[in-house]
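Exercise 7. Given the components listed, write out the predicted structure of the assembled complex. Treat all entries as one system.
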Amino acid sequence: MTEHVSIRTHPDRCMSAGTCIRIAPTYFAADDDGWVRLLRRTPAPEDVAVIRSAAEACPTASIDIDETDAPNEPQQLHTRRT
Amino acid sequence: MTNTQSDSLTDSTAADLMLRLLDGTVQDPFPIYDDLRELGDGLHWFAPMNMAVATRYDDVRRIATDHGTFSSDTFWTSPAGMHDPNDAEHRRFVGINSLEFMFADPPKHTQLRSTFRHAFTPAAIKTWRPLVERTTDELLDRFEPGQDVDFVTALAVDVPVAIIGAILGVPADDRKLLREWSFSMSSTFDPMVQGERRDHCIRHSLELLDYLAEIVAERRRHPTDDLVSLLVGTRTDDGELLDDPTLLAQLGLLLIAGNETTSNLLSNAVRLLMDHPQAADRWRQDPTSRTGTIEEVLRCDPPLHMTGRNTTKPLRLGEHDLEQGTMVITLVGAANRDPRRFEDPDRFDIDRTNNPHLAFFHGIHFCVGAPLARLEGEIFLTRFLSRFPELMPGSDHRVRRTANLVSRGWERLPVRL
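Answer.
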């Protein structure tokens, strides 16, 4: 069973706490206004734990992690929503 | 509610600890926080004040996140709302202050906060760097290496007000006034300030609001590139401009929230860096250590030690059944040293890589001024530590502030520069 993980960020919720950038600087940065900017959508398997702690630590819940068994499932979830 | 004997023992021990915390003489509250957090499940009922207390990291975060259940609409039941309803000036004051967005829930909170979010983008805050640097240098120019001073009165209380004053466009000559006004206004949040003293603080704070109203009117006529002009002209996400009372409430909040808390941050940082000289040396030599150091100061000794929420429905918190409208106090000072979350929590460790402390709180009320506080901390400490390489504790005793349980900093912090 292959686990597929992808990261989503929400700059509209971000308050620039900077927690994610300190925890995982190769994945998260700041955009021109200073809000969160995602550098890589798909984490390397060895980075999943650190990405998870960055998402968990975000004070404004601006990082989501989608985890599925199959890589195409997140899209299906979205299209099913009406 | 039925209690087993051990439960009531836990309850009475918790009540004793809370009474010790509240009696206003405890210099070091952290051992009490530890006891409260490790007693039972860390969730306590304090009957004398009809309130619940949360101490563990996960519980404090859960309460902060669930703003639908734990409301911030606490102004009228908090000390800030205490006033004489027969006094028109008192009514005018609380009428304005109750509009502060820290006391609002969504959707009002979202709407008010959206204007601040535009004004306080990290990019906007970066443009204030030269101003913060200049203001810091002016204040530091008054001192010589080797001088014995009380850091709190000589520097900590002056720096944030000078900076926020400059950002608000207040003339330098009026800054002393601004500091006194700000002190009066923060005092209205202190439950110990009652009677004649409260009356004085309210009237004095109204002078501040009237002064700010003049600045607002002036910026409406002649906008500049300063923060007030920006807030006057920024629409909320609903496309509305803020009306005057609402705007004044937020400006007043900005002043007091950015003032005492930042003074506490600076004093707490200087205290910890004097007690850990190797961390101070790292700060001087290695710029990459600075962010971690500020975060660790915020974790070990947060400027605000607690905050409160009101329950919006009956609920069970740990072993306690709470009615709707019950105050729940979250002890940030206790949560930030929860060993379940932080390894070796009492150690001041500037190299912690994962440090999601709650000093700026969590969720939708996460401190909007956090980037400014961090900027001030970084600029001030860099200049302060480099000008005074021999910085050490002064010979006199340190005195922690004890009367104000929420805003803990130092009353007196003697240093030799």
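Discussion: The radius of gyration of chain B is 21 Å. The interface with chain A takes residues 65, 117, 121-123, 125-126, 291-292, 295, 353-356, 360-364, 366, 368, 370-371, 374 of chain B (CB under 8 Å).
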